[in-house]
Amino acid sequence: MKELIQVINGFQELDSGTELALKKYFVEETFTKNDFIIKGGKICDKIYFIKSGAVRRFCIEDGIEVTKWIYTDNQFITSLSSFFEQKPSFENFQTCEETVVYSLSYSDEQALLEYPLFVKFHIKQLRYYLSKINEFNHLFRLMTAEKKYLFLLESFPQIIKKAKLKHIASLIGVSQETLSRIRASII
Fold it and tell me: What is the Cα–Cα distance from 3 to 166, expressed in whole angstroms?
């Protein structure tokens, strides 16, 4: 739980009452490799914080799995529109390896929103992630496949270490063969 508290305190310093509430409402869960944490077509009723492991977010486009991102240690994950609007998710979240998370249910999140410092954290975190997503989508779209791979290697080395090559290839929008050529040219 200390990892979760540290990340939250990085956004907003908490008081002891809010920390106690977090410890009460967040629940540790363990998933085995290839488990679905969130399934497309179902309502996502939890936010997760990855204590250890890796989770791939993907959608089905024209019958093909397209990896949208791979999350690793100390990151929050959820299907945003599904969780916040309580409607069926259009995306899937699947573990890449055994993964330990702290989960927060929708109803428990509503209870935590009664704590002003949690609300401040929530707002700061959402603003930060939304701006980073916007910036990332703009930059990533303009990069070549080789630059995308180098960007991941430099900025998100855990993705390169933990994810399958076919998922990294899908994330950067190339075939596995092209990814192999890119990797060979870098080494």
Answer: 30
What's the pLDDT tens digit per position in 169-183? 998 889 989 999 998
The three-state DSSP-derived secondary structure of 93-159 is EEECCCEEEEEEEHHHHHHHCCCHHHHHHHHHHHHHHHHHHHHHHHHHHHCCHHHHHHHHHHHCHHH
φ and ψ of 73, to 5 deg: -45, 140
Distance of CA 89 to the CA centre of its chain: 15
What does the pLDDT look like over 57-73, one tens digit per residue?
Answer: 999 999 999 999 999 99
Alpha-carbon dihedral angle through residues 145, 132, 16, 105, given to the nearest 10 degrees: -70
pLDDT, tens digit, 9 for 90 and up, residues 137-146: 787 788 888 9
